[in-house]
Amino acid sequence: MAAKEACKFLTEHMAIKVSDLGKDALISAAKTSMSSKIIGPECELFGKIVVDAVLECETITALGDKKYPIKNVNILKSHG
Predict the structure, then answer these.
(1) Is residue 51 part of a domain?
(2) Distance CA 66, CA 73 (A)
(3) Rounded distance between C-alpha atoms, residue 8 and residue 57, angstroms
(4) What is the pTM of this model?
(5) Mean pLDDT rounded to a whole number for the chain
(6) Within 10 A of 28 (CB to CB), how many other CB atoms are there?
């Protein structure tokens, strides 16, 4: 019972929709997740690329909700 009420409180009072955050917050989150990876020094560039790619895949459902299907983002490797 207490866990259920705690989850309800978090979703009602402390959760923020991703669409309300803005592009800068999304880039910061992407940079944070890449900071410990091999591409860490270039996280500014790759963060912008990732956020732009996800935002381009935005679809709107029949109910009017925005969805971002990550499976629609493809990685193209090029040697050279």
Answers:
(1) yes
(2) 16
(3) 30
(4) 0.69
(5) 88
(6) 14
